[in-house]
Amino acid sequence: MAIIVISSSGTHGDHLPYIALGVALQQRGHCVRMAVRKSMHDYVIGAGLEAVDCGAELSEELAREKASDWDEWQMPQISSVAHFESTKARFQTEFPIVFRTLVEICVDADLFICGLQRHLFGAMLAQKFQLPWLAASVTPFFQCSEQNTQETQAIRKLFIPTLNEISAQLGIKQALNWLEYEKNEWALLGSSSHFAQTISRFAHYRQTGFWFYQAPSWSTWQPDETLRQFVEGSDKPLYLTFSSIPVVDPQKLLMVHVRAAEKLGRRLIVQRGCANFNESLLSDNCDAHNVKFVDFMPQDWLLTRTAVILHHGGIGTIARALHHDCPMVIEPLGNDQFFNAQRVLSLGIGAAMHPHKITVDGLARVLETKVLTEETRYKTQLLGEKIRAEKGLVNACQFIESIHERH
């Protein structure tokens, strides 16, 4: 048995695959600690794992207050110089706290598994304490895109002096190579090679297949009768969700989808999510009976009964949609979502649209001619079969165990 610490950061969708990995490792007899932000602890504890507070909080309220920060189509609210100084100050404040927390958590650990934004700490812990660490990612954009590699290197160069300063402050005597710190012989990519393949620079990443999170309660979950009747009506409904991503103008975005669904004679189910889509945003002259709002729920039940999912392009949502043969429309706002939208187009499993230029007629036309078609459904089913055949968590656990055995 190994003592394994897993640390991740980001939105809910970034954390959940790592919780799934923690559960899979614990089921194989290992002791697992999850070092995550406070608001993820209910998910961790609910999965039967140990939760340790690590990292700055990210609440829905805070995200909504700064919705424009999540939207790369928007003009920056501050200058590039001000943004650099703000990021530098955040590093100087947060990094020492996270590092010291991880030192305490990992004191008796056999292995430290770091999510993407924690790789830096894995390299630092290895340098100072010779702690074995594994670089993990569940976001293929960062290992499958040449463009991202160039941009990342340019940004890192700007922060080298700050990182050296922080490193020295924390007692790390030998300076790290901040341009290559994530280079580690032990690396896992928790996504499917059928969706995107690693570039040569990241060929050392073992690509396992997606890591699907399943809450214990999901196995017995049943919808209430009102939801069941709404979803299981005549034609399958459309499904709108931006998950944990806020939007600048939720009413405008919602009503475009409501009107497009009306135009196609389809019902629309809407997840409130961090965008806070809700009944009060509906126009008076729309048919509210054909729109159903839901909170966080097991998507597995819903996606098998959905004609199309319309979303921001998060990889977790894409993976689960593909697992259930559900075509999609991607409306990307930032980060890896643009890359994911390109992959969806290339694979022929859906469409992509500009979230600020989308119109009722345009969305209805794209849905009817490009997504709600036999060809798109067929391609989605073929890809879904390949993804269901992968055993992402099993493959990841076997690789992790092989590391522990060799070390």
How would you portray this structure in words?
With 407 residues, the protein is an alpha/beta fold. It is built from 15 helices and 13 strands. A seven-stranded parallel beta sheet has the order 3-2-1-4-5-6-7, sandwiched between helices. A six-stranded parallel beta sheet has the order 10-9-8-11-12-13, with helices on both faces. α9 packs across α13 (360-371). The longest helix is centred in the first third of the chain and has 26 residues, at 80-105. The radius of gyration is 22 Å and the shape is globular. It starts with a strand and ends with a helix. 41% of the residues are buried. The mean pLDDT is 90.
SSE layout and pairing:
Elements: E1 3-7, H1 12-27, E2 31-36, H2 41-46, E3 50-53, H3 60-65, H4 80-105, E4 111-114, H5 119-129, E5 133-137, H6 141-144, H7 146-169, E6 187-189, E7 206-207, H8 225-231, E8 238-241, H9 250-264, E9 268-271, E10 291-294, H10 299-303, E11 308-311, H11 315-323, E12 328-330, H12 337-347, E13 350-352, H13 360-371, H14 374-389, H15 392-406
Parallel strand pairs: 1-2, 1-4, 2-3, 4-5, 5-6, 6-7, 8-9, 8-11, 9-10, 11-12, 12-13
Helix pairs in contact: 1-15, 4-7, 9-13
